[in-house]
Amino acid sequence: MSDDYILQMRGITKEFPGVKALSDVNIAVRRGEIYAICGENGAGKSTLMEVLSGVHPHGSYSGEIIFDGELCTFRSIRDSEAKGIVIIHQELALSPFLSIGENIFIGNERAKFGVIDWRETNAQAAALLARVGLTEHPQTIVADIGVGKQQLVEIAKALAKHVKLLILDEPTAALNDDDSENLLQLIRGLKAEGITSIIISHKLAEIEAIADTTIVIRDGHTISSLDMHGGDDVSQARIIHDMVGRPLEHRFPEHNPTIGEEVFRVEDWTVFHPIDTERKVVDGVNLNVRRGEIVGLAGLMGAGRTEFAMSVFGHSYGSRISGQAYKAGQPVALTTVDQAMDNGIVYATEDRKRYGLNLIQSVKENITSAGLPKLAHVGVIETEAEGSVAEGYRRELNIKTPTIEVPVGKLSGGNQQKVVLAKWIYTDPDLLILDEPTRGIDVGAKYEIYTIIDALADAGKGVLMISSELPELLGVCDRIYTLAEGRITGCVSRSQATQESLMQLMTMEKGSGDTL
Amino acid sequence: MSSTIKDIFGKNLRQYGIMLALVVIVLIFAVATQGKLIMPDNVWSLIQQNAYVLILALGMLMVIIAGHIDLSVGSGVAFIGAIVGWMMYTWHTNWVLAVLAGIAVGLLVGVWQGFWVAFVRIPAFVVTLASMLLFRGLAQVIAGRTMAGFPQDFNKIANGSLPNWFGFIANPLAGLFPKGSPFGAELDLVTVLIGVIAVVGMVITGWRSRVRQIQHNLPVESMGLTIGRWVGVGLAILVITYILSMNLIGGTPILLVLVGALILIYAFVTTRTVFGRHVYAVGGNRMAALLSGVNTARVDFMIFVNMGFLTAVAAIVTTSRAGAAVAAAGQSFELDAIAACFIGGTAVTGGIGRVSGAMIGALIMGVLNQGLSILTVDTNWQMAIKGLILLLAVTWDLVSKRRSRLA
After folding, report:
1. pTM of the entire structure?
2. Fewest Cβ atoms closer than 10 Å to its Cβ: which of B34, B182, B265, B267?
3. Can you give the residue ranges of every domain in chain B?
4. Fold that domain B3-160+258-406 belongs to in CATH
């Protein structure tokens, strides 16, 4: 094995306000090989690639990047692309209503004096498409081809930039099995042409199949660099161990649950993608939550957790939704948000700013926004009662704000989250679905949120908590479901669950084992 | 701006700024026109000529807060005015019936717009652009020939005053003005009473809500600021009352009563009702509103129905004032209403705006109109000046917002 490194990243440390995303990360990538990077959601994989590609400009991080023997100080993506480093994001960066040819050369147009040479564009595009195994005409509109082929167009676009190091972020997450296999085959083909690839992936079977070396990142540190062919005898279990093997700390409040009757159940809940209506996003999910119980829902990015929750909450996501929901044993319809709320089912979104709050409205108005009818008499709001309600939650949940009239956008993330919780608690629900309730919140505020969640359960409500942080699920939940590729792959009680066992269930692919 | 001033004026700083701007503009024109601007007949015609802006801005405010726009209100005014005029002119319909029919047509216009915007989900810009052409065309068809000669009572809506029920009282300030000055004339008691009741009502309702807030342990505005506002607004009301009550011009315009009532109603709707709150919620973050159980489509629909209603009111006022139904009526009314909202601090991106702001914006436009007319500034230049002031107001708003975000 040669020691010809195309890329070395040494001592990379990157801090965001309040968070150390990367801490002394070291990786070395040999020319012409395929590398896989794995880690949990939020481990720092994407940040590392953003540092490499110049999204985070030189100077905003510490450490050094050596590419092709040169010390690199990229200030933007253009700089890194000029050297031959191309990143393909999970969310494809194609312009849907332009043609394949136009997309391949976007920002890199075949032109003379600013006038596009269409013959050259289409001829070169056709040649690039042939290299990635596409037979589409370059003038085909991108929106008219499937996601799998769009992914290949992205690679053709990278080839047009004379890529030396191709980075693919979750390239197969949105692809079906055939398209995935096709893509992996293409990456092997590129390897034969001497192009180095780095694949960020959650799919361990896929990594085993394609990677020469697997780098595991956890909490912003490089944990291991595993030779997939050598004597290491790398198993999926080993990768999982490295991904999650952190010590559990006691940063959760003590809680002894009093579990009662079943409050909510779904049977055979299936949801298709809203646009790509052939793609199953949630696949025959069965789960239940009892009163006083905090149930976790674990799954990696793209497993369909949020999609499941939003489809339950008034069909707010997806198409062709089927399956039956039961509230306290009685079948209920949940086709609108109003219906869900009438049935005591509420959903606190993972994206507070986009879907949870009206940032320009006051703390008070946000708190009462969902339960406003309770404060109104023939359509007129009882202003003082409204103020009292908001003041009450400000004290009870310890929302730190100068007054309740302050726009909620001025509050810190933790306090914004408390406003979201207050908003839903005021509707007096029976089931709260909390999607990443502690995302982007500092440790102290997290503890407060956990305390609120425990109190809700003690008040006899059911809680379904979605989280990417396994320790959090293990620390807070009484029972945890795992979700992989839209299917429930397991249900374990807190006492039996470990980070390793959960991760194993979360990475269980279709046909790779028996499901529950 | 120092932090203490910010503390005192709180979130209403922008509001006071725009009020101050109105006062400054009034003073500038009062001086430039050598006092003509504040002569009773000019104040009268200011109200008469700008009532439509105030009325339309009330509806436009809610449209813009919800994140939409309505370009068709000018054409709507012509269309509805033509129908009302047609009924009285051709069929000799009783004027009350004609007015009611006009309101009904206005509501139907709103249903039409609301249907496309809320249920077919066509952007309001496109829907109302189409409606602008549609209703202007229909107005031409109906009122291709100008129709005039309506019942006296109908024309009084915009041209009449409340009757002098209680006689006149001696002017307590007469001694301040030279003999023969209109400012020393006797005062219409009805007008004086209305003015005084307005001021007393403002203080009493303000005081009561303050007491209730304190009872509920809610934070209240500082007493000094409250009193300051009462003195400022009260003085303004009393000055206008004084000017209007002079017997030369016949007391309180009926139009002023109508507009005043509408302002109070809409201030209540926007701040105190569930519907009003939902308008802000939809405009501030539509997805969050939807995921909080707000029926956003119904809110959109109702906003346009309401706009249709106010368009009808404006149409009746405009037709009454002209004493004629004209196909060209209401030209560029939509722009005046939109400008009033933006000058009054309504956010271009939706979610923010107040009735008081929009009304002050409308008054600024009105004073500019009136002042420039008295100065016999060419109407083309008037338009250019108003355009620049609109741009200035919105720029100031956005820049100050950007700065506060950086701070």
Report:
1. 0.83
2. B34
3. 3-160+258-406, 162-252
4. ABC transporter involved in vitamin B12 uptake, BtuC (1.10.3470)
